[in-house]
Amino acid sequence: MALAGGVGGAKLAAGLQAALPPGALTVIVNTGDDFEHWGLHICPDLDTVMYNLASVENPATGWGRRGDTFTTLAAMELLGGEDWFRLGDLDLAVHLRRTEWLRQGIHLTEVTDRLRRAFGVLSTILPMSDQPVRTLVHTDEGDLPFQHYFVRRRCEPCVIDVTFVGADSATLTDAIQHALDRADLIVLCPSNPYLSIDPILSVGGMRRRLRHLRAPKVAVAPIVGGRALKGPAAKMMVEMGHEVSPRTVADHYGDLLSGFVLDQADAEMAEAIDVPVMVTDTIMSDLKSKTRLAQTVLDFGLQLAAGHRQPAPKGSPETQS
Ligand code: FO1
Predict the structure, then answer these.
(1) Is the peptide bond before 317 cis (omega within 30 degrees of 0)?
(2) Which has fewest Cβ within 10 Å: 100, 180, 221, 310?
(3) Measured in angstroms, how far is the CA atom of residue 317 from the centroid of ligand 1?
């Protein structure tokens, strides 16, 4: 099972899907980024994961669909409609269908399942909750709804804190509970920890539930050589007074983790991380590199699970791959 949000998470999810038997992967996806736009219910991270698992993603951006056109967006601009969020014409069909189903009272979990089946995806894609949880970014310019911070303001405001409105009353779905019961390994994808993984962990009981699972929990660092692989993670670390380092990510997840995957560029940091570490190449440029990283993460998870059954010396395994 993987927890994912954003492009980095979707890329590793595609690698895990390729490395595992068909239908074996479940991805729990951040919905804190969801919002209403043009009267439609938009779920950017669910769609990014679905498009990447269906291999129809736009390779230039990682989000949206390959070969999409923007005729409707241009027409909306002419009508004075909102044009800061670039919805493509093909992508629009997904938002229209999702909104239609949600208005009929169908839960987001079922809607997401219908969409992934239509795209021929065999992996299970689960929204983190069926109830609304909305990421609110507290900045030096005031509180900004997530997409206003991320897309409209291009992550420029200085971040003070991030909160998840509705998380206290949101609950884990039955589908997530069942998937957690069956999981052999939990992978925290190289997504932004503050904006993509924390919203998932904020949903009622998720953190506690994960902590008590016997399955190993492995995070893959989204920071390589002092830079974020994509997006504002490094900038946010500076603004919130943290060192820009994979260690900050490992410390952030704390006692949730059983293992941590570090890029070879940061190999010297392995000693400073409190859980067993796997050092490998974490850069994902094509399906081959995504699958290779996924296989390394799965093998590491197996090692950790074996160590759990048969206690190993402290700090082991700490492997160069
Ligand atoms: N990200 C942008 O930076 N600019 C956009 O105009 C934009 C449009 C968009 C449309 C559909 C979709 O599914 C995603 C889109 N994204 C866009 C990406 C998205 O807002 C972010 O990647 C995530 O919310 C962060 O994980």
Answers:
(1) yes
(2) 310
(3) 38
